[in-house]
Amino acid sequence: MNKLRQDRQFRPLPVPSVEVHGLFGDRQDAICESTAEVLLDRCVEAGMLRAIDVEQPSPGIVIPLQAWSGSTQMFWDSDLGKSIETIAYSLYRRPNPRLEARVDAIVDMYEKLQDEDGYLNAWFQRVQPGRRWTNLRDHHELYCAGHLIEGAVAYYQATGKRKLLDVMARFADYMIEVFGHGEGQLPGYCGHEEIELALVKLARVTGEKKYLDLAKFFIDERGREPHFFTEEAIRDGRDPKQFIQKTYEYGQAHLPVREQKKVVGHAVRAMYLYSGMADIATEYNDDSLTTALETLWDDLTTKQMYVTGGIGPAASNEGFTDHYDLPNESAYAETCASVGLVFWASRMLGRGPNRRYADIMEQALYNGAMAGLSLDGKTFFYENPLESAGKHHRWIWHHCPCCPPNISRLLASIGSYMYAVADDEIAVHLYGESKGRFEIGGKKVELAQKTRYPWDGAIRFDVTTQDPVRFSLSLRIPEWAEGAALKLNGESVDLSNVTIDGYARIEREWRSGDRVELDIPLKPRTLWANPQVRQDTGRVALMRGPLVYCAEATDNGAGLNGIVLGGDISNAKTAEIAELQGAVALDISVARDKADDWGATLYRTSPPKVNQATARFVPYHLWDNRTPGEMLVWVRAGEVGR
Amino acid sequence: MNKLRQDRQFRPLPVPSVEVHGLFGDRQDAICESTAEVLLDRCVEAGMLRAIDVEQPSPGIVIPLQAWSGSTQMFWDSDLGKSIETIAYSLYRRPNPRLEARVDAIVDMYEKLQDEDGYLNAWFQRVQPGRRWTNLRDHHELYCAGHLIEGAVAYYQATGKRKLLDVMARFADYMIEVFGHGEGQLPGYCGHEEIELALVKLARVTGEKKYLDLAKFFIDERGREPHFFTEEAIRDGRDPKQFIQKTYEYGQAHLPVREQKKVVGHAVRAMYLYSGMADIATEYNDDSLTTALETLWDDLTTKQMYVTGGIGPAASNEGFTDHYDLPNESAYAETCASVGLVFWASRMLGRGPNRRYADIMEQALYNGAMAGLSLDGKTFFYENPLESAGKHHRWIWHHCPCCPPNISRLLASIGSYMYAVADDEIAVHLYGESKGRFEIGGKKVELAQKTRYPWDGAIRFDVTTQDPVRFSLSLRIPEWAEGAALKLNGESVDLSNVTIDGYARIEREWRSGDRVELDIPLKPRTLWANPQVRQDTGRVALMRGPLVYCAEATDNGAGLNGIVLGGDISNAKTAEIAELQGAVALDISVARDKADDWGATLYRTSPPKVNQATARFVPYHLWDNRTPGEMLVWVRAGEVGR
């Protein structure tokens, strides 16, 4: 029984089993063309290779290092790990021997860097060698290991090369010695979660249950009393109460995870933790974890999530504040956090399709996450505000370069988020032009998805099978998809008869030539926020399908808060924007405050005059890809339709 | 010609020449009763006396000092200076021998601390003795001196005791040796303006023009090239580009003052500079300064000022950002900055009454500034946001305790802002129950102002003169005062015939028994902001007279952004609130989003239901004096009246 159980229900389709086209395909092309190499180049520019290369002088102690390179952080291994992961996925789509050779060289460096006992962390081997495992709360050692493990798994799967995987498995074996309740072991866990979900991936690729057990150990220990972080600080001669973030909520270590009911602290940490918890819940059929996760899911999605799927409004803790506190202009809403929400949502689907999770996965993906990568794949957002006065722009690199490789690895592997498979069921969670290859009951099944989604809601599935094969095909019907219609081989299917948990489930013996047609009307809709969200009162957000729309100054001129949108937007016209790779814009008749005839005064007793005008709205995730300027998601709502 | 010229037009009435009652009187009572002593107590608790007392061990170098007391700053002399000034004014109203004795003891300490050459600064004598005059940009030495001079002048005027005045005059004489363009002199000025206006006060009380000349020197040198701060940094072995605030705009030293057109940088510094410039413009009849000041005035009041007279929206520089950038919830709007705006405005009245300045003086005083002091005089605001989610509250003390003594010294001396006098004219800038004693052409004149203003707009002036005396009485007619009416001895006076620059000017031979009645209707009014203020679009602020109103949760429950105010507020009812010392509240019928039946979802396609309700608005400066909670100034505007 030290081998991995295979009794969980749904697993994502492996990345190479999905051919991706359409919008996601365009993004993957940009990643193959630019981002994959850009990530590596910028890691190198930031000094990361000098840091891990034992042939070069050690970067020295902390302060000199800052002078030596202003762009590195204690956790640079994680950036390399995520970059390797991105490159690995990109190699499926477009073989790139030169890039692969660069990764091989990095892997060689890591192999040489690894200590005899298996320990591996550039910072604590090269910069602060005496400080290994002295401060799990702040030092990111296991976080870095987690990202290197994810990179190693992906690189092994993409290339068949085991070297980095073996290095990381040795490190994980060493962790098993270090962590535990035995004599001389540490009952600890990392302040920044990540190792948990990475160990699950390592277990799945190696078939070794011991890595799952370690992941579960980290999850089970988190937040228990006596508190590990407190005891560790005392051992290390530090005042346990003196640390920047002041509270263990920052790293979700304030309570045992099964007792947590409110999503708190650093948003990325929270998402990675819940992702790991969901994996462990699936692997161990652990209902106590699932119950906690469902409570946390509701808390996040009904009280703390931007309409973009952005999460974590505050810069101060890169994370959560109070329920219903969702400031727009100062929204932190880190790209990584929305990426993390996609990770979590996808893992909540491990126990079966449910649009409660998949709808949010799609919403976070298409808006909060995808905003993080420019169309050309070369520039990035870290924060994702829902309003900008025109000074927030994509950057080339960031002193904390976590987001670029994070959104890139997600998009480069998006196929595995689109499709999942169980013993006798295929679930389609996300729509988009693509082809998925499955094996059901030992038989090959191919599902060709033909669609222009998310620009158009007509979706066709053509089935090809080796032999006729019985399975269920589950297609998500988004909650917002009013008037969706389904046909099987030309015959209408009554959705109300076949829909379970928001998925239309067609069980039959499928054979080549079978065709399913799903039509999801993509009528623009206005959303109001719960009145407790003070920042959105009297305002509406515009959506079409899964996409949140925004107004940009480049289309509308400055003064976007002068726009007043009526409740009735049935007059909206669509337009394809060539500059945005054919994205669908919405042109809507609005009222608009006149600013030009106001005069010089700052305040007066009469309101501004109002014009009728047409405003153009474009998908939020595409903003700041053209002439930079103001941007606004929540526009003022008129009385019409109220 | 080294004596002070006396040819400027208007000077504020000295503090003891005005008896103040009504609302201002209540505040002064609270200051006499509590604040004056509280300020001194808290300075002592913060370790300031140990710092200046040469009988006690030196606080040591910087870092140990921080451990020694967490509440002191490099510029503590300024806090003592402002506290002494507050106490001095309070002694007119209420003699307090015990408090006066405490000040005398502090003055003795300063006398002992002063160096042989006249230098006086607790930090650079006791903590960093080798660093005198090495970093004018950051070190606040002249700023501290300025506040001690202001304190010394006020204390001398209140008590007749010259000791501190003599100490500070010696220091100023030493400054005259140190600063200038001569051999071995420094052509510098302080990074934090204040010394300029203080030297004007010193010149006025001593009659010594040399202090005016030094103030003018500091103003003239500011921002000139080659830049003093750059040269000083190089001399001191510092990189001139490496400093926290990055730009000389922070201290308004980016350009020579006469070339400055935009109000930039740290708000308090800007206000103190402009106050000094206005004084020098008056004293030297310097039109080049006046022209610059008028441009800066327009820039501030038409593009950068909250409706409360709060200024400086950003915490990052405690100051200004862009034109029309006036965020409400994150508004910094430091109490000191509004106090500084009152200082500046009052000095712009030095060359004659003009409501362009006096209206803003009143607006900043009654709202942005007075909010800084609680009704009981014991707690303080530093930041003054125009919206609070319920977590912004008055504090007992601040690590940078500049605001408490600043608003206190302003209110304790408010009489001198109410009345000004020229050779043949009395100007009444502010209304409020009071009695002013003047001397015109060698004859005593008493003006008794009888009114409940700002709660009621009926104002009566009764004149008492020694003998009949000819002068003009100028009464401000606020720009907002629609329908104001004036009577002289019962006879109506046509305002349009007598109003110049917004002041009704009655020139005649006045005699005892003359009565002037001014009626200023205090009808509530709604204000819209310039549409370029994105944060206020679709919203209105409510004012009545000079007072900005706000809604508080204690009156209205939570969810203040659910309130929608129609343009028509003629149905407003007034109510006197006993808890707020009889302040007039406004009860207005509004629409209000229903939050309780919305359900659990965060976003939905239908708007919230709307109720009719009555909302209560109270004067902004009185908020957070009752049960703490949400507060909102700019409420949503309905379509009514548009």
UniProtKB/TrEMBL annotation, chains A, B:
InterPro entries for the chain: 6-hairpin_glycosidase_sf (IPR008928), Beta-AFase-like (IPR049174), Beta-AFase-like_GH127_C (IPR049049), Beta-AFase-like_GH127_cat (IPR012878), Beta-AFase-like_GH127_middle (IPR049046)
GO terms under biological process: carbohydrate metabolic process
Pfam family, one: Glyco_hydro127C
GO molecular function, one term: hydrolase activity
UniProtKB keywords: Hydrolase, Plasmid
PANTHER family named among the record's database cross-references: DUF1680 DOMAIN PROTEIN (AFU_ORTHOLOGUE AFUA_1G08910) (PTHR43465)
Protein name as annotated: Glycoside hydrolase family 127 protein
